[in-house]
Design a protein that fits this description.
Layout lengths: L6 H4 L9 E2 L6 H18 L5 E9 L2 E8 L2 H5 L4 H16 L10 E8 L7 H13 L4 H13 L6 E8 L8 E8 L8 E12 L2 E13 L1 H14 L1
Parallel strand pairs: 1-2, 3-4
Antiparallel strand pairs: 2-3, 5-6, 5-8, 7-8
Helix pairs in contact: 2-4, 5-6
């Protein structure tokens, strides 16, 4: 039988990086729960801000939260008021959950990064398809439109979009997919961006999976190794 591996974990040391970058042997469980609370709060609070990912970096006494969004203006607010309100709310939630040690002071900083083209992001494309399905748009037309908009970008070498669930309100759940171009899913140096989102419809939950192939990073990795060798 085949063993399914998450596309990002499969390439975590080749082309991808962790979304939580820290290490603490003594308080690993506590900090992991903090990260979960932070992401859950931001995804719920900033649902309309087109959030692609939330990265968390920790250092002694400091927590840096990096938010990648296609609509950064909704997050920042007028004069930066939105950022300050988010920071205070995150600190209040962590203290309310009694996750943060009251004697340990943590400085929380927020960094918002703009995504200029949402159609080269698998997460944002999946969010768009899920929102269309929640509005009762036909699933075949929606995934074909999504594939057409994605493949219109020269950065994308291949794409695959798959939806699963009670499509169109059918009694029996099924899967449907569309794909175009190359998609070498077993090549570790292939830069494949994967995302999973869910559409909550009146007749059940529909899963949306997207794979985007952006070429190989073999040459880039080789160039970095050569630069490191020359520096030594």
């Amino acid at each position: 039988m085949a063993h399914s591996v998450h596309p990002k974990i499969f390439r975590i040391r080749e082309t991808k990086d962790w979304l939580s970058r820290w290490f603490n042997r003594k308080k690993f469980g506590i900090l992991l729960r903090e990260d979960h609370l932070i992401r859950f709060f931001l995804e719920k609070r900033l649902k309309e801000a087109s959030i692609e990912r939330v990265e968390i970096e920790r250092s002694p006494g400091k927590v840096q939260i990096i938010i990648a969004s296609a609509r950064p203006g909704l997050i920042i607010g007028r004069g930066g008021s939105g950022i300050e309100a988010l920071r205070k709310d995150i600190q209040r939630i962590l203290l309310k959950g009694r996750v943060v040690d009251s004697e340990e002071k943590q400085e929380i900083t927020l960094d918002v990064r703009e995504i200029k083209n949402p159609w080269i992001s698998s997460a944002l494309t999946a969010q768009w398809i899920a929102s269309q399905l929640e509005r009762r748009m036909p699933h075949r037309r929606t995934i074909k439109q999504g594939l057409m908009k994605v493949m219109a970008n020269k950065e994308i070498k291949g794409a695959r979009i798959e939806v699963a669930g009670r499509l169109g309100g059918a009694d029996i759940a099924r899967k449907e997919r569309v794909e175009e171009g190359q998609l070498p899913r077993q090549t570790m140096r292939a830069d494949i961006e994967y995302a999973l989102r869910e559409a909550f419809t009146t007749y059940g939950t529909i899963g949306v999976k997207i794979w985007l192939y952006k070429g190989e990073k073999f040459e880039e990795k080789k160039r970095k190794e050569q630069e490191t060798t020359n520096d030594k």
